[in-house]
Amino acid sequence: MAQNPGRRGFLVGGAVLGVGALAAACTSNEPAPAPSAAAPAAPAPAATGGNDAPGTKVVIGFSAPAADHGWIAAIAKNAEAAAKQYSDVEFKPVEPTNDINVQISAVESLIAQKVNVIVMLPNDGQQLNQVARQATDAGIPVVNLDRIFPDKLSYRTWIGGDNYGMGVAAGHYIGKKLKDKGVSNPVILEIQGIATLPLTQDRSKGFEDALKNYGFSVTAKQDAQFTVESGTEVASNLLQAHSKIDAIWNHDDDQGIGVLAAIKEANRNEFFMVGGAGSANAMRDIQAGSSVLEATVTYSPTMASSAIKLARLIAQGKGMSDLLEHQVPQSITLASETITKDNVAEYLPLGFES
């Protein structure tokens, strides 16, 4: 997500790094055969040992916005659950808040307590940048979660989803399906989150770019503010304005509850819809096949679990045992996966409740 407030809104199961396997050792304990003269040995992975094996005790500070919707609530839950997996981790969360100044004060309290590492999802990356830099300058590495700080000196590692990739995934699903059906000049609607946010603009740009591959474009788009109520209102307006629709992409599964309610109320089903983020609610609808929702593209809060795993490794001075490098990467972008009825059972355990 961009540094601005609002939302993300990835699934990690098919991401660049899987949640469960992110810090697990992937190298064999069997001795490698001696290399032949013709084939020199490949460099050995970083000698970090099993990443999940107990190590030096570390204190991980954690700060995130208040849980005013399902995705953010899942961020905190996933972070806490990941920390509990390790006997060598003390998890020290501060009170979640949507007040910039309160979050700054909370992070300053973690700095004063001299925690070993801080995982932070800032309400606003720009406005929280200075306190993140303060932590880094105090010798406390920061794992920047999702909404990125503009100053790379303010964080050790960033991990987050791919907003542009969400749009690309949605665009390819819709474009291919309409092309395969032989639809020409389709009516394609887009329901955004908050239109002014860079993250939303990235999603829309990815969607637009992917649709171009099929010779299609967005007919109309409107933002729904990431809320159920606005989702209902915006969807109702779009349904009234378009007597025939071929496809809808809704950026966010939380607001999608309202979107689907409006569609049901209007008794419309001549089109199909793709959601965004990967909520359990959306996945159950896809699995049941009882609505126009056919797919969702992921931006999963399980990234918070991965952030905790990365923070632990950084604080313990370890690299990732399935990589050659001796240190955790500086940046990890999770891929946006497309969930359909064919693979929904695989992803459902990772869904969040809206």
TrEMBL record:
Family, per entry: Belongs to the bacterial solute-binding protein 2 family.
A single MF term (Gene Ontology): carbohydrate binding
Keyword annotations: Signal
Ranges where the record places region Disordered: 30-49
Keyword Signal listed: yes
Pfam families listed in its UniProt record: Peripla_BP_4 (PF13407)
Provenance organism: Acrocarpospora phusangensis
Main location: other
SUPFAM superfamilies in UniProt: Periplasmic binding protein-like I
Compartment(s) of residence: Cell envelope
Ranges of compositional bias, category Low complexity: 35-47
InterPro entries reported for this sequence: Peripla_BP_I (IPR028082), SBP_2_dom (IPR025997), TAT_signal (IPR006311)
Protein name per UniProt: Sugar ABC transporter substrate-binding protein
GO cellular component, as recorded: cell envelope
Domain of life of the native organism: Bacteria
Domain Periplasmic binding protein: 60-318
Signal recorded as keyword: yes
